[in-house]
Design a protein that fits this description.
- The protein is of the alpha/beta class.
- It has 2 domains: 159 residues, Lyase, Ornithine Decarboxylase, Chain A, domain 1 (Beta Barrel), CATH 2.40.37; 173 residues, TIM Barrel (Alpha-Beta Barrel), CATH 3.20.20.
- It has 12 helices and 17 strands.
- The strands form 2 sheets. Strands 1, 10, 11, 12, 13, 14, 15, 16 and 17 form a 9-stranded mixed β-sheet that branches. Strands 2-3-4-5-6-7-8-9 form an 8-stranded parallel beta barrel, surrounded by 4 helices.
- Strand 10 and strand 11 form a beta hairpin.
- It binds pyridoxal-5'-phosphate (PLP).
- The site of pyridoxal-5'-phosphate (PLP) has 17 residues, from strand 9 and helix 10.
């Protein structure tokens, strides 16, 4: 039986141990941290998500825009949700047809909408009345008729329990009251036939997820009725969670599909969409860095790592650590102790968590973190203190391939 935790694939761990044994120790261009994505694991997972005919799956590219990851999703029949010109160009560069691209996001300028239409994108989630007016003008000029979903943001009346856990307003979409004021007839160049709602994140309970989805149905179908819209498409965004704390709170995909079949029926839509980020790619990614110092400071056992939130910022934002283990085999023989893991930046925010590791961990040992496939490389703050930007690797059929070399400060500083 393997000594590695359940979230770490054995074949990858062994390959990375080999890599560690042949490490480049040149201070100027060494990797002070790298990401690696297990593509066989990813493809298997995506194929499993596609074993259903209830929901059309899009991939939220913001979760991980690496070309190899996009290609894996393409190969498994996913379509693509992009939220910027950069994401659009990255997806088009992988030879994905523009008809398979959806544009979401609150920051769509008229210039951007026109550019997307010119590139052949014909599906838009519209988040403001301005976006609607601009898209209509651009579509009329270009003589195209894009499919449009209105993004709705719900708030619960004072005193009523808010199932979304808080009533803070965001720039994502508009209230039903605001959308009710528009007239579909004012936008003849658009096929406005869907609604989009997504106001939750990292959900780990099937029951809670279903309860939230089902509470969306009445306000959304009511809005469609008031607008005189034949509601064809309902897009429920993303938000399916990963159990970063490994407490076995995992979602059941087959239950999700059963629940979504009910939602589809209740909303009487012909198409139900999800744009998955974290749930699609989170588990296939790992992050590796090494220990540069170890000390007892007051009451804390501290490890200082070669990289921290400059490569992987999520723990600082959420106060949730990624699961972690030693890459070497020495761990199981000694007792474990909770270590406070700090990165190299001059801010106390730079902490990757407090996690159990064997007492004999040492300077130079490599640590591997799991569930780092989503919101990792591209969500971090790589330039602070001028450390190297993380390298990226893919692992496929036993082969480890570097896709991005570490970028040293002299390459990005001006
Ligand atoms: C519009 C939209 N859809 C989907 C997602 C993906 O969310 P998740 O990673 O929770 O699946 C996001 C993430 O921010 C988003 O903004």
């Amino acid at each position: 039986m393997s000594d590695f935790p359940h979230w770490l694939a054995d074949d990858l761990a062994l390959s990375l141990q080999d890599k560690a044994a042949n490490k480049n120790d040149n201070i100027l261009d060494s990797e002070n941290g790298y990401f690696v994505y297990h593509l066989d694991q990813l493809k298997q997972h995506l194929a499993n998500l596609q074993q259903q005919d209830v929901v059309k799956l899009w991939y939220a590219v913001k979760a991980n825009p690496l070309s190899h990851v996009i290609k894996a999703l393409d190969g498994q029949g996913f379509n693509f949700d992009v939220a910027s010109v950069g994401e659009l160009q990255q997806v088009l560069a992988q030879d994905i047809a523009p008809e398979r691209i959806l544009n979401t996001g609150p920051a769509k300028s008229k210039k951007q909408l026109q550019y997307f239409l010119e590139q052949g994108v014909n599906t838009f989630v519209v988040e403001s009345v301005n976006q609607l007016i601009w898209l209509n003008e651009c579509a009329a000029k270009l003589k195209v008729k894009p499919t449009v979903l209105l993004r709705v943001q719900l708030q619960w009346p004072d005193g009523k329990k808010n199932p979304l856990g808080g009533n803070s307003l965001t720039p994502f979409g508009l209230s039903t009251a605001k959308w009710q004021q528009i007239s579909l007839r004012d936008y003849p160049a658009l096929d406005i036939c869907g609604l989009h709602i997504f106001q939750w994140g990292n959900m780990l309970s099937n029951e809670k997820m279903y309860s939230l989805w089902s509470q969306m149905v009445a306000p959304l179908t009511e809005l469609a009725k008031q607008l005189g819209m034949a509601l064809k498409i309902l897009d429920l965004g993303g938000g399916l969670g990963l159990d970063y704390l490994t407490q076995t709170n995992t979602l059941s995909w087959s239950q999700i599909i059963r629940d979504l079949a009910q939602i589809k029926q209740q909303a009487e839509v012909t198409e139900l969409w999800l744009e998955l980020g974290r749930y699609a790619v989170g588990e296939c990614g790992y992050y590796v860095t090494d220990i540069v110092d170890k000390k007892t400071n007051f009451t804390e056992q501290q490890l200082v790592l070669a990289a921290g939130i400059n490569h992987i910022i999520r723990p600082a934002i959420t106060e949730q650590a990624f699961p972690c283990t030693l890459l070497s085999d020495k761990q199981q023989l000694t007792p474990m102790v909770d270590y406070h893991m700090h990165g190299p930046l001059c801010t106390s925010l730079d902490k990757l968590g407090t996690l159990p590791l064997p007492t004999n961990v040492a300077v130079g040992d490599e640590l591997i973190f799991g569930y780092c496939g989503a919101y990792g490389f591209s969500e971090s703050m790589p330039f602070f203190l001028c450390h190297n930007v993380a390298a990226e690797y893919v692992f496929e059929q036993g082969e480890l391939t570097q896709v991005r070399a570490p970028q040293v400060a002299s390459e990005y500083l001006r």
